[in-house]
């Protein structure tokens, strides 16, 4: 049987390379704009998420204007100073309140926490439990605070419109909005929609 002409082989090779390039480009586009994997680096979201868990983050819904909702676990950019020890609040005089305002600029890192209040909500925190608009949150998913964890912020604050207030589920061991304030919704990257690793913990956070 005669060999295929060299031109035909070159055309097939070009077609194969083009298909691979398009597939890689599509995968990168999906990761950049729709879904991206994240690794959990700390114990702040125990027992919901453990160190080393991998989650897929839905970035597309927020890009299309969907607002974060109370109860969602989200990945976001915190304010500058959130990663400091101790974390920096944008307000000096707190007087028994959770931090009511962040520093003005974003940090260069990402955090994962749970949305516990949104713009317009009025909250206080007692023993690590959020009292939102006079009603205590249903928080069976949390690890409770111990008496010496500093989890009481009895004076209420109002979350500014367009902001969200975030807390870790490990209430006694989480640097979160209690210490560095609510953040603009635009700083939220997306919702952690699926825990995909380890396979034995596959499910929704």
From TrEMBL:
Record keywords: Hydrolase, Protease
Membrane-topology annotation of the record: Single-pass type II membrane protein
InterPro entries per UniProt: LexA/Signal_pep-like_sf, Pept_S26A_signal_pept_1, Pept_S26A_signal_pept_1_Lys-AS, Pept_S26A_signal_pept_1_Ser-AS, Peptidase_S26
Organism listed in the record: Paraconexibacter antarcticus
Family: Belongs to the peptidase S26 family.
Cross-referenced Pfam families: Peptidase_S26 (PF10502)
Keyword Hydrolase part of the UniProt annotation: yes
Name of protein: Signal peptidase I
